[in-house]
Amino acid sequence: MELRQLRYFVSVAEELHFGRAAERLYISTPTLSQQIKQLEREIGATLLIRHSRGVELTPAGQVFLARARETIQAAGLALKDTRRAAGLDEPVLRLGLLNGIPGWLPAALEQLATERFPNSTVTLEAGTTTEQVRMLTAGEIDLGLVRTPLTLPAATTSEHLADEELGVLLAATHPLASSPELSLDDLAGLELIWIPRAAAPEFYDDALRRLGDRIRLSDISMSHSQLRSALLVRRDAISLGSRRAATPDVVWRPLCGRPLVTRYAAIWRTDSHNPVLRAMTVSPGLTVVRQQVVET
Length: 296
Description:
The chain is an alpha+beta fold.
């Protein structure tokens, strides 16, 4: 039994849903499910009851949750106290977690941090592209993740990490849901519910420019996590998103010619003295992360 498995179980127990827990842990749902099944086999008892709406804890699972939390906390304190006794400072990288980003990307950066600077710790600060820039400028994070295009502040640099195709999200009951691919003409006159412009102004403007003026912009906007729910209320509307956002109730369709792409980049201050960041950005820098491909 590993600490990693305990953390996985605690996440599922707190979310009561494998999909949400997997997003929180930046791993795939099948991987998480396999790890929990392996844990149950090792213990010899069922910890979770799985059903269509999510999961619930068995009596054994409730006991194990309490003990798992205690074990995780004790392990963290043991590491921290030991390092303090040895006179070692705990290196920390404060990573900005961009809303709606593919889970593998922050996970890959965390892995790179621990590989380049062993025993370092990565903490997360969530926010939009605009909030990432503000936090970086204010010294609240060391490394931010953003959507581009983006005009960078002074003394800030960036490195492109990944591209992800943007397509159309719509309710499964929408008349266009039966089409395997959509054209811009298909979208003419439809209501588009999307993220607030303030979240990433240059990215937002660039995407709408590529769509042209045939789409009717909605009077409401939503965060990435709310878009699917909005489409189930306004079933004649559409949104933009990645294939990852598709569910049985909300389908994803590519656009002809693939005109829309989300480009993700890392940003950091050139005058930063953070040792973990410096270790990550020296040659070859973040290229090992960029070589990974976003699933399409």
